Amino acid sequence: MKQKLLGRPVALLSLLTMAFLLFSFIVTEEKRSDVPHTSFRPGERWTDTDGVHINAHGGGILRHQNTYYWFGEHKVEGRKGNLALVGVQCYSSTDLYNWKNEGVALSVSDDPDADIAKGCVLERPKVIYNAQTQKFIMYFHLELKGKGYSAARVGIAVSDQATGPYTFIRSLRPNAGYWPENMTAAQRTSRLSTADFPESWTSEWRQAVKEGLFVRRDWEGGQMSRDMTLFVDDDGKAYHIFASEENLTLHIAELTQDYLDYTSRYIRLAPGGHNEAPAIFKKGGKYFLITSGCTGWAPNAARLHVAQSIWGPWTEYPNPCVGTGAELTFHSQSTFILPVAGKKDAFIFMADRWTPQNPIDGRYVWLPILFEKDLPVLKWSDEWTLDVFDQTQN
Predict the structure, then answer these.
(1) What is the secondary structure of 78-99 as a DSSP string?
(2) Which residues, 6 or more positions from 282, have their beta carbon under 8 angstroms from its beta carbon?
(3) Dist CA 286 CA 301 (whole Å)
(4) Residues 224-248: pLDDT tens digits?
(5) By CB atoms within 10 Å of each CB, which of 4, 116, 321, 378 scores lowest?
């Protein structure tokens, strides 16, 4: 009997100890999400300073006054598809590892007739700063609510502050009534039209696409604009680079001085090449453009295009990715290339690992861009830091 009585407090003590350990584990796990990040872990869950997975998909980054601002598509938990129900999210950082949620920079509208009505498709937002007007300018790919992907428009918004709120100005198809400067007179005046090709993807159809079939079709109303990025050159001129012509040809279009419109000067890049997800950077006077093929949400091999001038000619090179997973761009798709401040010739390749069944869980694949024989190379790394650029300086 005595032995049993002594056993009760021992058992109670064991239960209390287990409960304490479990509580400690839970608290520790909660704290871990708030511990500052000190490295990049591509493809892993990336939490903000509140411990919440960063919600800025298909995004881009602006650096302004020593702070980085990350803008991306805000996804909704458990919501399949790609409809915009919130808008564009913004995060800020001074070290690129740790990001503070700055809230919604551009909200979709509750007005069902608005271009950016809740339920539209709003993709790949990019923001640039205009030093002359002191305005922050946002461009994004826009598909009107209920119209699938037929609208193929670009949306433009503006703000006085980097974090917003941004005011939507308008949407349009670029360069209505203007020809690409690298399209020949014969191509411009050809009488071939889409009605002459009852079947797509034939060799004759492909050749007609290369010769400007869709440019002529869309000349009056403006060129289609889907996956996109923005680029500000060393001279302050800005460019809108986007997938056009039914995603079969990229366009590079010059923006006006205030970055709110087009100068009407633009070119076609890789006609008929079927490129999307453009991401551009400049190094040593050369322009490097990384794109992907068009395979929906599924990843594919990246493409590389290089030019001495933004206006071309552009030369295509093999996939810049090497190693295991290179043929699928490490299971991701390009969205932006970020120059790292304070480090010479340091660039980060930003990509998305899409999860269409639950888009909010999409992961981010950031990798350092290395160089071999003057060409960019992407290699997988489970974990890396900005110190890699100090080790690879040429």
Answers:
(1) T--S--BSSEEEEEEESSSS--
(2) 231, 233, 234, 288
(3) 22
(4) 999 999 999 999 999 999 999 999 9
(5) 4
Return d(Cα 105, Cα 110) in angstroms, integer: 16
The verdict on residue 364 lying in a domain is no
Reported as half-sphere exposure (CB side, CA atoms, 13 A), residue 5 has a value of 2
Half-sphere exposure of 59 (CA within 13 A, CB side): 26
User: Number of folded domains in the chain?
Assistant: 1
| Number of residues written out for the chain | 394
Burial 361-393 (b: 16+ CB within 10 A, else e): bbbbbbbbbbeeeeebbbbbbeebebeebeeee
Residue 320 counted as domain residue = no
**CATH code for the domain of 108:** 2.115.10.20
* pTM for this predicted structure: 0.91
Q: Are 55 and 72 in contact (CB under 8 A)?
A: yes
- At 83-136, the pLDDT tens digits run 999 999 999 999 999 999 999 999 999 999 999 999 999 999 999 999 999 999
- 3-class DSSP assignment, residue 215: helix
